[in-house]
Amino acid sequence: MKKKLIALFSAACTFFGGINVLAAQELSDEYDVFEQVAGYISTYYIDDQLKDQDIMNLGISELLRNNDDMLVELLKSTLSALDPYSEFFTAEEYRGFVNNINKTFYGIGVRINQKDDYVVIEGFTADSPAEAAGMMAGDKISKVNGEDMRGKNTNQVREAIAGELGAEVEVSVLRDTREYTYTVKRAAVNDSTVGYKKLSDKVGYISIIDMSDHTAEEFADALSEADADNISNIILDLRDNVGGYLDCATDIGKMIIPKGVIVDTKYRQSFMDKTYYSELEKSKYSFNVLVNDYTASAAEILASAIQDSGIGKLVGEKTYGKGVIQHTFPLSNGAVFKLTVGHYITRNGHEINEVGLNPDEFVVNYTDPIDTHKYTPFTYKVKWHVGDTDDNIKAAKERLYLLRYYDGEINDVFDEKLEEAVKTFQHENNIYPYGVLDLTTQTNIENKFAELEVLVDVQLDHAYEMFTGEPLPKDE
Question: Which CATH superfamily hosts domain 372-453?
Fold first, then answer.
């Protein structure tokens, strides 16, 4: 089948514009036969006006006319072969794509992108069920409800995950060389994209998780909160922000970037070129912008404008480097294709695409083993049941909470919610699942707990210290 598709796509390249994009050594035996047949026909067929290419075009045209699935597959392959961001959608797929942008579906709260053969989790929405279940940025989605997701695009994976509110979906992910499976309840995706927090009397923190159609408005609200707190030093967190709308980034830029260029957009069709400006005389804020290798596209536009204008520094790791623009083109049957048509140039005239932005302060986060001494210890003397009260029960709740099994109140009461968490833990660790906190279960919980690693956010710490000369208060 693969050889036949190679032959089909090779001929189709001739059919759609007369360009053969496959090197001769990549053509299959079947394609050689196809050419031979065309040659015989052009030589011996009664109609001497038909040339080799005419015959090939006739065959491909007839085949695609009567095979909608193959035509869709051809169009998908054609668009995806151009670059990682061009894409073909059927009418149904496009509705799902739009619903995702507008957050009108129920899912598990992940932000995803295509990387090689897999769709990869790049971040999470606020209050994400997937993050609460234990999924991590960088996980490759390998299965949804047992269906293989390898080779699927972002919309196919998104549609597989989305469904009825409150219904469970089983998602498997590849992390390093291991596969992990999580059962997650679908929830209404929290459409809040901006968060604000006062870190101290001197510094505020604003996070932007993506660039949606209402992010600029939310950002304005966050700035108002900072103004109310009399804060002008802001740590802006754009880590894991894979972008979104260009207008969102430029609208935010107009609120904070001093007068001048925010970004230039350049297109193949030069009449489409546009420069986005800020008319702000002076910014009243100073920024330290947190970035990493998942900061991309519109988030990079905003970060570059802050860096180039001199109102802030980038802290963290080199950004992703997506500096190209896609436009969507609707078709007569409701299908839509997204095509890369232009690219961005930063305020100071630099390319972003496949280059990224270099941070002013290169800082890498790391993980440390969890400090088990900070938590209530097990005594390993008694087994505990529903209705019991003891510090060992509190110890179990603390550990199962961090292990993502328990999400209730942390206290010393053995309630039914803890019983269910214990049962789940026992089932997944080959212990008889009867919900009793026996000595074997306590030992296994402690062993799993001791294996945990916690993220040390030195990027945030460093950004705070750049403003104040003091370490970030740990109780914050």
Answer: PGBD-like superfamily/PGBD (1.10.101.10)
